[in-house]
Amino acid sequence: xxxxxxxxxxxxxxxxxxxxxGFDHIADGDLDVWCSxxxxxxxxxxxxxxAGVTIQGAYIDSCFVPEMLSRFKTARRKxxxxxxxxxxxxxxxxxxxxxxxxxxxxxxxxxxxxxRSTTLDWQRxxxxxxxxxxxxxxxxxxxxxxxxxxxxxxxxxxVGATGDIGSAVCRWLSARTGVGELLLVARQQQPLVDLxxxxxxxxxxxxxxxxxxxxxxxxxxSMPKTLEIDQASLRQPCLxxxxxxxxxxxxxxxxxxxxxxxxxxxxxxxxIGWSMMELAEMDKPQRQMFACFAEAMLLEFEQCxxxxxxxxxxxxxxxxxxxGAASVRHGFSTLNLQSxxxxxxx
Length: 346
Ligand code: NDP
Hints:
Blueprint (H helix, E strand, L loop, with lengths): L1 E5 L4 H11 L2 H4 L3 H5 L4 E9 L5 E8 L10 H17 L4 E4 L2 H8 L7 E2 L2 E2 L5 E2 L2 H15 L11 E5 L4 H14 L3 E5 L3 H11 L3 E2 L2 H4 L5 E4 L18 E5 L15 E5 L2 E4 L19 E3 H11 L15 H13 L2 E3 L2 H9 L1
Parallel strand pairs: 1-3, 1-4, 4-7, 8-9, 8-11, 9-10, 11-12, 12-13
Antiparallel strand pairs: 2-3, 5-6, 14-15, 14-16
Helix pairs in contact: 4-5, 6-7, 6-10, 6-11
The protein binds NADPH dihydro-nicotinamide-adenine-dinucleotide phosphate (NDP).
């Protein structure tokens, strides 16, 4: 059985959903009530891949909402409680979605293995970052040619290059795709220098200097809401892959020769018959999902019950090959500009 741990995109959305599901006692509660609400297993689902493999899964709502991010202890408790519930339900492999994986890493939850009487078994959880990185790299490869960018000559900026996802994307673009030049963007210098050495190339740049030079920009950093982009200074065409969470880049730049694609999103080959992705505001919630969620499904399809993506900067090209091949075999495709445009026009 696979599991997905997620959350609503806002407190208001969470209350609406709780109302729909009949959880009246918390639907009407204020943020303090929600802070103490336990996680809920809200949905079971059965999924069959084109390879003929059928798996069972469950969606656990952590009852976390982004408005709780500043409440450090609450956020930590929400994620740990949801993980405890997944383990108690006997779920083999569970993906940490949305802010839950960010909280896990940034608040160093590895130190908090014991939740009440449960010792969390890390083998049962995955961040899903390997699949996310593979999907983003493939989105670059698939979509740059669609807007007239020749990747062999292109400058590709990776904002968040030294992160778990960003470094894997850099490895792939450098070794597999063969882009013209990689522009490596992050704030701390030493990890950038280490990455540059590992890759045997790439130019370390500030965001301000990289943006006007880049044909493609991969955003895999949580950027401040106040970030402003001077669209007039961007190259045309410019492909931007919005791999951050939440995905709000199209509110800052769009139109003209700038193409913004939601990064790290995959589409299943048929409707799944679940309601869980409505919470994540997908364009096609019956088929589309975060690649990190799909990683748990893929590991279950493959009966690979291990914490496939775990820790920082452990994503190898071999692991990306494995999860990428499984993704294709089991009926997932990456979100592309065409499907995004078709949906907007419909
Ligand atoms: P990490 O914490 O491992 O890496 C973050 C990277 O961003 C680091 O290189 C960091 O370097 C850099 N960074 C942070 N702030 C800035 C800044 N202001 N300017 C430039 N660089 C910055 O994160 P992950 O790789 O795990 O995740 C990256 C992003 O991907 C997150 O936003 C996450 O929400 C999103 N994500 C999306 C998923 C999906 O859509 N399917 C799934 C999982 C994650 P430094 O600190 O040196 O600046």
